[in-house]
Amino acid sequence: MFTSIFLAINVALAANLPRSDCHDHEQHRRLPGNWYHECDHPVHNLFKRGAPGDGINYAEVGSPSWSSAFPTSTPDTSQLPQAWVDALNDAVSSGKIPNIPESTSTSDRSPVYPDGFDPDGSEVCSSSYQCRIPEDIWDAPTGTLGIGFDDGPLPPTPRLVTFLQSQNQSATHFMIGSNILSNPNQFNAAYNIGGDIAVHTYTHPYMTTLTNIQVVAELGWTMEIIHNSTGGRVPRFWRPPYGDSDNRVRAIAAEVFGLECIMWNRDTDDWSMESGGTTMRAISRKMKKWLTGPKTPGLIILEHELTTDMVQAFINAYPFMKSNGWNTTSVARLVGDGRPYQNSNNDDSTVTADGILVAATPSATSSITG
Length: 370
Ligand SMILES: [Zn+2]
Fold this sequence. Notes:
Layout: H1 2-15, H2 20-24, H3 64-67, H4 82-93, E1 144-150, H5 157-166, E2 172-175, H6 177-182, H7 184-192, E3 196-199, H8 212-229, E4 237-238, H9 247-257, E5 260-261, E6 266-267, H10 280-291, E7 299-302, H11 308-323, E8 327-330, H12 331-335, E9 350-351, E10 357-358, H13 364-367
Parallel strand pairs: 1-2, 1-7, 1-8, 2-3, 4-5, 6-7
Antiparallel strand pairs: 9-10
Helix pairs in contact: 5-11, 8-9, 10-11
The structure holds zinc ion.
Zinc ion binds next to loops.
């Protein structure tokens, strides 16, 4: 009798599992920590984990088999994994993606919508017009400063991460997928010291100008290359290039991929240093004003790792962040309660030979502020 009850329970459990290979690994759930992909995690079918028995092995970052797995430029929307296309179609047909037309991008960097669609209105809510979608993150908690850098990995990245490591300072890198493909060593430099990797699209377009399926391609391939280069971690956060998003783009990121959007509330304009739009001194003046100003809301400062000068502007400002009493933390950990990834409860965890994530210490995530 006990045997038949046991079998019945097992059959019932198996019926609830989305993939049979999950069942093989159920026993490991008793160990400390979590799988990168829990069996019932919604991203399970979008980004397949690599583990013994799954038939997937992650190629070494930078190797020919790794490189050949990703697009070299703008992703072809007719060559997407079917699971991504199905997830978009499901989200559209269930009414989760607002029917807002694409914008057209103009030379003054303000996307334009067809007549009848107000970029400032609640239906469109374009972040290029500073309309704040309530679910997006623009501010940090009081007294905190979220550290993050856009557009890497690039040749200046190692200089930045060497400094971060010397200060025991965590940071988020909003990475461009095609830059990861071109700069695997710089990617490893950021990731291996514990940098949090987030999504900044594959080829850095104005996202509101893209069709739904193009949005899926830009986000999906960036997540895929991060997933396959970090032992299976699925990023939790993204940042739109030029800060250009709206309710349609936000919904695709959230509903198809589970991504949350981190914007910013202070802009150094460091990206314009090369063209003479700003200078090291001007950035320094801005930083001192912000860092000696009110602690509410906390700061999320837009910075880039495009050039060594931009990295140096951050290094110059860093002592003032500390001397003015700011709690400086990787922005993804800061706003994500210590969880920069969707499928890992503790990014300080290590992976065993069985592909199991083991927590370093129970309090590891909450104790990281540096
Ligand atoms: Zn960017």
